[in-house]
Amino acid sequence: MSTIESTRTSPPAAPLLSVQNLAVEFSTSAGVVRALDGVGFDVAAGETLAILGESGSGKSVTAQAIMALLPKPAGSIAGGRILFDGVDLAAEPVARVRELCATAIALIFQDPLSSLNPVFRIGYQVAEPFRRRLGMGKREAWAKALELLKRVGIPDADTRINDYPHQFSGGQRQRIMIAMAIALDPKLLIADEPTTALDVTVQAQIMKLLADLQAETGMAMILISHDLGVVADVAERAAIMYAGRIVETGRIREVYDHPAHPYTKGLLDSIPSAAAVGERLKPIVGSPPNLLALPTGCAFHPRCPFATEATRTTVPELRHPEGWEPGHLAACLRSEKVLPHG
Ligand code: ADP
Ligand code: MG
Fold first, then answer.
1. pLDDT tens sequence across 292-321
2. Is the C-beta atom of 59 inside 6 A of ligand 1?
3. Which of 34, 84, 147, 205 is most buried per CB count within 10 Å?
4. Shortest-distance Cα residue to atom 17 of ligand 1
5. Are 181 and 106 in contact (CB under 8 A)?
6. Helix, strand or coil for residue 298?
7. Residue nearest to atom 21 of ligand 1 (CA)
8. What is the pLDDT of residues 20-39, one digit of tens each?
């Protein structure tokens, strides 16, 4: 019997983005902070990876490192590779990475107002990449901008194109940012907490827009969020971060249904939508560690209900726990014991 696997004639394509063993450091007056330590993940063309974790776990720093946006001179890449389309962005000069990112990698983040210019009409700003990067004339660029605004669902785009940023709601402004991000057909879109400032209904609409655009364009996406609920329906895989490391990764459904790390379990238990009506949310006790004084062993152990002498002394590596599906990895010594795969 032939299977897809046995009839495949060419090897699977190399991932679009392959982050390998990435380390990022910040020099601060209190010492050198290692904000990322050994971070690695792949994103294939057309795929969506969710990067999740509590505030301060290293999600934004990961995005900044990929796009050469680490604050200089304090922040720097201290090791590892960021292979994008075969080029190691970690080894290229910042200016070259910025240039590459201007067309191939797009970024949207939480606060669209800070990246929109208050004194220019929306149409002018959305048309800008077409004029500047593609050398289009004013009229042609304006027409492209209008097309984009319609595509991201701005109502009455024909007239609203003349409005200024403050005349739009938060959700509409995020739509405008998304229009600007997809203008030049990026291969990868990184969305860092794109819906955190928005109310729940609008959050879902923006996530749906991103998913629709991805289906149309085939771009890859990295969705960054502290809220595991928001990305559940859009992402295929998840990487869960804690204290600058990835502590669990796998298919998002599997990770949510069968978490193999107590931290992930804790994050899932604190999602409002996941708790039954009347049931109390259970936030993870304690707070994220100080990166200048990381706990010994597993960085999560002071907050972990399952900590033992071993987890207090041994730094756990990502591994495949027995019983979980292939490709599901967790950095916990005790997955099988404390979170049996049911
Ligand atoms: P989040 O997961 O909330 O996006 P970040 O990636 O922004 O977290 O930050 C991760 C950690 O990196 C922070 O907790 C902080 O210790 C460190 N960090 C980030 N930016 C800086 C900076 N500009 N200077 C010093 N440390 C920083
Ligand atoms: Mg962040």
1. 999 999 999 999 999 999 999 999 999 999
2. yes
3. 84
4. 35
5. yes
6. coil
7. 26
8. 999 999 999 999 999 999 99
